[in-house]
Amino acid sequence: MRLKDKVALITGAGSGIGRETALLFAAEGAAVVVVDVNDAAGQKVVGEIEAAGGKAVYAHADVSKAADCENMVKVAEQTYGKLNILFNNAGISHADDDNAVTTEESVWDLTMEINVKGVFLGCKYGIPALQRAGGGSIINTASFVAILGAATPQLAYTASKGAVLSMSRELAMIHARQNIRVNALCPGPLRTELLMKYLNTEEKKQRRLVHIPMGRFGEAKEIAYGALYLASDESSFVTGTEFLVDGGITAAYVTPE
Ligand code: NAD
Question: Does residue 253 have an active-site annotation?
Answer without folding.
Answer: no
